[in-house]
Each structure stands twice: as structure tokens, then as C-alpha cells.
Amino acid sequence: MEMTASLALSRRHGAAEAGEGSAKKVKTENAVVGYEAPPAAAAAQKKKTKKVMTAVSKDQVDFVLASKPILRSRPSSVLHPRQMSEERRRQSAWVDEVVRSTNEIVRKLQENYRQQLDTKGCVHIEVEVTDDES
């Protein structure tokens, strides 16, 4: 980033203190030279992950199975779409899609949990862990 000294001074103190007409260029550097990541951070980047099966606690299973679909509450302006701006209609459609997809994800998760409970009597999920966690 290059900036003339007079421009930098005039921005801070006004043109009178800047010495009108001085066009000396000052070069500034924002990057830190010779910076390397600490060894702990470098090691964290190199850790390998693997997938393992782990049991889901009964409390978590009960929580998922007890979840109800999200019902979208709508403001009164939604009941009259002609009064809504185009941007508001787009946002409302986006929220509708998020609610719909969230409900679908929860429904599939509940189906999976119920199927596993019926066949195995417990629920297992696949989790990605590093070598340190396993």
C-alpha cells in the first residue's frame, strides 16, 4: 500500500500542516516477514482423521425421537403477499426452505434411530476423530 506523506498528513492534521506540495512517497508494509505457524498449530494441521462408530446416549436418542417438526410462524404481512416487497418475499421463501429442509433432516434422523433401535436395540453413529481422540 503506497500513500504520499502529504496526503497522509492532510488526512490527519489538515492541509496546512501537511506542507503543501510535498509529494514524498512513503511505503508501508502490513505483512509480517518471516512468520511461521507455531509447532502445535502445524501438528494440528497434519493430524489424520478416521471414522469410528460410537454409541449414542439414551438421553440423546430420547431427545431426537421427541423432536417435533418446526412450525413456521408468519407475520401478518405474509398473509397479504401483494403488500410484501420483492426482497421480503425472497427472504420468506428462503426461510420456508430452511424450515422444510431442517424438518426433513430431523425426520430422516428419527427414522434411522428407530430402525437401529428395532434391529440392534441401540443407536450407533459414525464420528470422525483424530488419532489423539481415538
Q: Could you list some keywords that capture this structure?
A:
flat, alpha+beta, disordered N terminus, two-stranded antiparallel sheet, 51% helix, 134 residues
Description:
This protein has 134 residues and is of the alpha+beta class. Among the domains are: 1-30, no CATH class; 48-71 and 99-134, no CATH class. The protein contains 6 helices and 4 strands, in the order βααβαβαααβ. The strands form 2 sheets. A two-stranded antiparallel ribbon has the order 1-2. Residues 1-20 have low confidence and may be disordered.
Which structural class do the helices and strands define? alpha+beta
Continuous helix count: 6
**Topology as a string of helices (H) and strands (E):** EHHEHEHHHE
Strand order of the largest sheet: 1-2
Gross geometry: flat
- Number of E strands: 4
What fraction of residues sit in β-strands? 5-15%
First CA to last CA: what distance? Answer: 48 Å
Residue-averaged pLDDT: 75
The major β-sheet equals: 2 strands, antiparallel
Percentage of residues assigned to helices: 40-55%
Q: Could you name the ranges where pLDDT drops below 50 across 5 or more consecutive residues?
A: 1-20
Radius of gyration: 30 Å
Region (Disordered): 1-26
Present the secondary structure layout:
Elements: E1 2-4, H1 5-13, H2 15-18, E2 25-27, H3 39-46, E3 49-55, H4 58-66, H5 76-79, H6 86-120, E4 124-130
Would you summarize the structure shown here?
This protein has 6 helices and 4 strands, in the order βααβαβαααβ. The chain has helices at 5-13, 15-18, 39-46, 58-66, 76-79, 86-120, and strands at 2-4, 25-27, 49-55, 124-130. The strands form 2 sheets. A two-stranded antiparallel ribbon has the order 1-2. A two-stranded antiparallel ribbon has the order 3-4.
